[in-house]
Amino acid sequence: MDVLEGCRAFVGVSEYGGFSQAAAAARLPQSVISRRVAALEKHLGERLFERTSRSVTLTPFGADMLPSAKRLTRLADDLQHDAERARRRPFRLAVPDTCGTADLARLEAGARHEGVYLDLVPAGPAERAELARALAVRAALIAVPPDQGVWAVTLGLAGTTEPATDVLHLESLRPGRSRATARGRVVWVQPEDDVPHVRDRLTRVRDAVALKPAQVAVAATLTTALAEVLGSSDLLLCSPSQAAELGLVWRPIGEVQLARGYSVSALAGTDTERLRGPLRPLIARCLGAER
C-alpha cells in the first residue's frame, strides 16, 4: 500500500472530523479516502477511527499514531518543496558573447520548457574555458575544431555591399597598384574566432594567395571589427546568422571552409548529457549552428 497517501487521508479525516469533509478538502471521492484509511489500518494492524452513523472519532491507537502521521506528511511536503526549489536552481552556463540578445532569450525560454532554468554568462572563448576550469559555472560551451564538436557554425565573409559572385575568394582581395587600393581590403577576425582552428587556417590561405599580412587582422572586440567594416569595404569573418543580425551581406569563402566548433565542458556528466540531449537543438539555434 501507499503509506504516505494513507497517512494523508488519516490526518485529513482527523482534522476535518469526517470522511466526506476530508474528501471534499482533498478534492477526492469519499470512497478513495475511505479505502486509503482502511488500507492504512490493515497495514498497521489496528483501527484508527471509531465510526458511527453520526460521528468519527479517533481510537486510542489512532490518537497515538496521529503525531507520527503528521510528521510523515510534513516531511513529504518539505521534500516536494525542496525538490521543486532544486529544479529551479539556476543552471549557470557560459555561452559565446556573439549570441544575440533575442537568441539568448529564446534559449532561456526554451530551456524552461525542459525544466532547466538557465543563468547565461556570455564570454569569449578563453574566458569560457577558464570559467569552466575554475568551476565558476556549471558548464561552458567551449571552442573546439568543428569535427570534434557537438555544434558547428559555418563561417564566411560579410560586408556592406552585395558581391557580384555567390562566393568570395580571398585572392580577389589582393591590393591594387593605385594609392586608393594599395592598402587592400581587410578581413576582420572577431575575438570569438581568434582560435587556432579558425585563425591559423585563414592566415595560411592569406599567405598562399599573396595577401599582405595586415589584410587578416584580429579585432579587440566585435564592435571594433564591425565599425571597421561599416566604414569601409572591409569584410567581417562571421556566420550567416550573425551577418543577418548585423545587417551585412554574407558569402562563403572560396578557398577554404571555416567553421566554429563547440563542445561542452561540465563537471557533472548529467549536465553534459542535458546540454547535448534535450537542449541541443535550442543551443544550436542560439549559436546559428547547422546541427
UniProtKB/TrEMBL annotation:
Organism: Kineosporia corallincola
Residue ranges of domain HTH lysR-type in the record: 1-59
Top-level taxon of origin: Bacteria
Pfam name, any one: HTH_1
Record protein name field: LysR family transcriptional regulator
SUPFAM superfamilies: Winged helix' DNA-binding domain
Family: Belongs to the LysR transcriptional regulatory family.
Keywords of this entry: DNA-binding, Transcription, Transcription regulation
InterPro entries (alphabetical): LysR_HTH_N, WH-like_DNA-bd_sf, WH_DNA-bd_sf
